Amino acid sequence: MTTTVIGVRELQRDTSRLVREVEEHGTAFRVTLQGRQTPVMLKREEVEREGVSVAALLASGLYQRKPAEVAAAQLAEVESSRDRAGRIGE
What we know:
Shape: extended
Oligomer: single chain
Number of strands: 3
């Protein structure tokens, strides 16, 4: 399986093409956000055929869970932007 590193902008711009490439060629994409590697796109059949479990995916380094404090800080940031009606944003 080929793994290609792409930026989130390329993912946004070329989502359809990238998904087709995953589907047709089995290419795996590691997506970066401001230089940090984040999500991975894999063909479902490839994962199932290889018998990849969440534990194996974590062990491979293709995916890393966010530390709990990062997730908590992100949630706190979102919650702090809610207005009285519970809407997020301006």
